[in-house]
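User: Modeling request: complex.
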Amino acid sequence: MARRHECLDGNEAAARIAYALSEVVSIYPITPASPMAEHCDDWAAARRTNLWGLVPDVVEMQSEAGAAGALHGALQKGALATTFTASQGLLLMVPNMFKIAGELTPAVIHVAARTIATHALSIFGDHSDVMHARTTGWAILAAGSVQEAHDFALVSHAATLRCRIPFLHFFDGFRTSHEINRVELLDDADLQALVREADVTAFRSRALSSEAPVVRGTAQNPDVFFQSREAANPFHLGVPGTVQQVMDELAARTGRHYGLVDYHGAPDADRVVVVMGSGAGAVEEAVDTLVARGEPVGVLRVRLFQPFPARELVAALPPTVRSIAALDRTKEPGAVGEPLYLAVVAAITEAMDTDEPPFASAPRVIGGRYGLSSKEFSPAMAKAVFDELASGHPKRHFTVGIVDDVTHLSLPVDDGFRPPRPAGEVQAVFVGLGSDGTVGANKASVKIIGEHTDLFAQGYFVYDSKKAGSVTVSHLRFGPEPIRSTYLIDDADFVACHQFGLLGRTKVLEMAKPGATFLLNSPHPADRVWAELPPAVRAEIAAKRLDVWVIDADTVARETGMGNRINTVMQPCFFQLAGVLPAEQAIAYIKASVEEAYGRRGRAVVERNFAAIDAALDALAHVDVPTEETVVAPAAGALGSTVVVAGIPDDAPLFVQQVTRILLAGDGDRLPVSALPADGTYPSGTARYEKRAIAREIPIWDPDICIDCGKCAVVCPHATIRMKVFLPEAVDAAPGVFLHKEFRSKDPPGHRLTIQVAPDDCTGCGVCVDVCPAKSRTEIRRKAINMEPAAEYRDLERVRWDYFCSIPPLPRGLLPHDSVKGSQVLEPLFEFSGACAGCGETPYLKLVTQLFGDRMVVANATGCSSIYGANLPTTPWSVNAAGRGPAWSNSLFEDNAEFGLGMRLAVDAMARHARALLARVGPGVDAELTAEILAADQGDEPNVVAQRARVERLRGLLHGVDAPDARRLLTVAASLVREGIWLIGGDGWAYDIGFGGLDHVLSSGRNVNVLVLDTEVYSNTGGQASKATPRGAVAKFAAGGKATAKKDLGAIARAYGNVYVAQISMGANELQATKALLEADAWPGPSLVIAYSTCIAHGIDMSKSMSHQKDAVKSGYWPLYRFHPSETEDGQPFKLDSHRPSIPVRDFVADETRFAILERTHPEEAHRLAQLAQADADERWRYYEQLAGMHRTVPHTPIDELDAKVGELP
Amino acid sequence: MSETVSGRTGGVSPDLTTTYLGLGLRSPIVASASPLTGDPDGAARVEDAGAGAIVLPSLFEEEVIHEELELNRALEAGAEHYAEALDYFPSTPVIADPASRYVAALESIRRRVRIPVIASLNASTPGGWVRYAKVLADAGADAIELNLYRVAADPVSGAADVEAADLALVAAVRATVAIPFAVKLSPYYSATANFARQVVDAGADGLVLFNRFYQPDLDLDTLEVVPRVELSQPWELRLPLRWIAILRPQLGRAVGLAATSGVRDGTDVVKALMVGADVAMTTSALLRSGPSRIASMETELCTWMVEHEYASVTELRGSATHETAESPSAFERANYLRTLRSWTTSV
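Assistant: Request completed. Predicted assembly structure:
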């Protein structure tokens, strides 16, 4: 019987096997492994059963450490168990991994291998995580393709039960985990055959049981520990044989033969590359090309890395081999070489040191690094390695794929080298926006072709680092042969640009081969589009003689009710032009795929898609391209590409000119090693140079209606609506179009006011318009700020914005900061982030920087805020005219509280040191100034500013003093000015993975300010449930609706008594939020501010983000309060700032998909949970009302003061 | 079905059974669409109180489409934007759209009560009327009430266009479903009697008179237009009384006629029946006083019938139509003049 094929990505291919062969699945989200856990949670919610007819227990833990602990426990009690992870997550599992292996316990962890954060975090793929785990005693098995991820998942689960050594099964993050490819599926019979019942029984017989009690996990002394470790040797030694046996059994059933190592190439090769993982695909293509040219080369693919099959490796090498390059996708600074290199060297050395050496003379072995953080690894790069091996003096250690102009380790690569393409293969590239559905349609196309024809199909998708306005590039291959090309397409037969505006902004035609077909979504018709194309694009089209087609997909989509989802319009055009399938047949398949994707959500969506599909081909038109001779070649663009980077002025910092500009042009791959900071330190304030102009509509101010409230500015997630108050003289030189009005407040008197949009930075989210309370008296729908088409207004608003920026900010002392307009005239030092349009988190960050930005240091937990905060190419954290601004750093996900506490300790230590030195040398320099500095109260901003001036004076004076103490004091004098330490992160950090640390830091009494941006899910990894997720909400990992109530983090913090705690919501009460942040900053102990943050994962209309927040508070779902520890005897520290609930919780949740969806999938459970959710809110309100009346006295002496006393210098 | 309700009038029990849309009802008091009739518990309470039938709240096609599209938009928002988060929600099993939720509610109500259950439908597209009428019929509704709820705000469509479109819908539904259906009319047709006849000719088994529109209001705090529904007032019954009195003789006995709006007590039921209605539908009274109001309405109806020596609803029904009333012209213009005079003298 023919085996079933499906197009799957590597994650799903592995997860299907893992789920089928497990009883307990402990999970925790981390990119790029999260989808494996999500699939398991979905399947469990849908009651899918495993091989034994049971629904596995899929349990989300609070961290990867927790997932590993739960895994360990489940195994000990005899359940077949698994988990999924990557990167830092795997590192957190390591302690338990040692235990599990040490106890000879069968288990499998599936890893989508990802870079470990070093100088920077990276979500992309390499082997630094799995190589870190190689000392744990786990077997490590590497899959190099989607099919292998499927097959080796089974090999791992079967082998571990046979040999009792746990398996770490890995495949390359993104390249394999997210690549869609045609997979021949394993069936239950395969699983039953390879996972032998006797092995399962044996495993269970070793489980802890009170019926046959044992003690496992003893503490051992020097007398026996060592011997015990060696006692396990036979088990480890047996692994390679077992794996090969299972692979052979698999081959007998499926015909797919795998070895522990597999050689491919010339039987008489003199040069061999040894490689592991997906990179082998690119090397194999290079080998085939070179062998065809007569070069004796080969590639040896390592599948089992640990226990390392040294004998098999030597045996697989051709006896003719003269030199070997071992390629590692990891870096171990300071090591003699990377792990695979060392293993190969040892294997060869040991083999040669035998009575029958396998080679006439020992082959030379060199080692190279490639592909770190998913860096492209192409056949051309593989060829560069073979070329290096052929040279007389190859580099012993090298890198490939980058230009290393510092230590000169990199190999030169001939970009012109391309393996010949298999006959009949079609390569297609699609450039689109995340929001237009391009990727979704391409995934469907891969499935259509891979599952409905005899062709093989591959899809790989590249996303950018922004969440709003993100650009996607889809790389699709189809052909009659299996597709092993594990690299991006750069000579496509078909290129589609799904957004006209991306031409000239993003590389598009660079990926087209000469004569390729180019499909463009264009608002301009075929006979007029040529004149509208950027000159560089015209030149590229002419030079490559591209066959150009246009379609106005936006109009077709709009007219068929699809909005901006142009995907189903573009998709039939692709099939029509690419010729992979007859168009008629393709359209039938597209409709079937639409039915499959949307049929579950109702007819309306399906029918609109059908209408768009039917209308598509009629709108497709051919463009007559002028001959090349008539096309005037443009001035050379940046780096010879069609991309022109706008918005970087000539006076931008040198780094921006030399590095950021190239990153923005999409040419970061070309930056040499020397261009990049070696320690991961980057300049602030660079987002302002990234003019993306992504909004279709932007808000336009009407000064006649405006009431000066500042709400639009305070809620703007991207700091693109600004408010300035200034003296009339400031606009003397303003262009005529610049708008301003009288500032209604009499304090300060005689001022003017302007509200201005940054037209190229605005995301068009519409939140400002939603909150604007000022309406025209004669036309109520018109507000003081209105969304208008960006195309019509952008040029005008650019003129206004440029002038607006030239007006100096109002002196900070002129308006009180604890008002909305008072805070909004302050300069934001967090601007233009790439967060989702309408993000609920970023308004808080912007406000914090307006209030304290010039004197704050941020410890930022990994998550959304660390990504939109510091994902290259730019950062929104900014600086003021004086060069001051927030200093920012991210350590990890789990340790952010401790990281921030460390900053606090350092600041305190330096301040103690400075005070002691000042006490010693200050009186001799300026006694009065010294006394003032030492006695200064820095409770509020004016006092901080005054202290800063004093310290500046002191520094000036100290420069003239030639004494060791004075010189030392100069190095720490800055610490005499109060700096706020802000610990920022999301609920995943604060409620779950970082809670232990956060709890400890709150208990320390130290002066840190914790800001929790509570979206109630792990937003950054795609909306997995956290302990902040409310009862009844549907989230990933809570696919059936979260059954338990949200943790009251504030209550836990308040229990300490001396922690300032506030719960705020910008959309409900900006003033209370502002006051809470000011109080948190001023409180000389720990402060915790929990900020309700609307999120795209709530399934709401993000333009109404703030209205949702208001309803959350009105329903009592999110009460606003401030707990200000008080030492007075009759103090009432708990202040309830919101009104008694005026609407039921159901009215709030009805408009949020996260709640509403349960009503539509599990109505009875939804009803039950909704009642409990209302009870939660009622009870919380009742409790809080009582707290608000309570008197409480909290003794509090700031730790800093205590420390000051112990910090005296001897 | 001809059982006699007894014990409510202290001895003599009038026969309350009636026929509406071909359905035999134990009582002419029908609970019209409201939150009460939308769930099984409420429906059971209404039945226990003695209702002859229940009408479910309307299934609105616009709501179905709006919800499908909005849910889809929310589920896809942010998807495929960013490598770490390719979507934000679990992959869901089948999502119950409003139509399937309606069907589920209809089915559970059908299981819960024995009295006839009339589903109500308001569609916005020709295809929608047919599709959902079939869905409701397949789900086991005893009858359907087609709720022709539209505001004729399009200046291009004349009265004839509006009427033609409505009649086409009625015909299309007739061609699709075998179960009886009534059409709930708005009072704003310019030639009501003519149009009513055409609706019946197009295949409707009955008429429900009349539809009450949600009317917009202004919230002066937010300066927003807000839809508001007000419970009906007793005087609103007079409009259906007039038209049922006029239509009953014109349409004949076979056509079902239901009076709705302002039916608050037993005497209102009496009036409705006298002018020729088969049933009197009540909603606001139940929302104000609870389902038990039906029982007291029935008692009041019986008391009046006993006092006036009516033995059955059949006898009472149509005793004061345009044809049978003492002064038929009172249902036409003269009635207007008299009303004005009485109003003037009473001040």
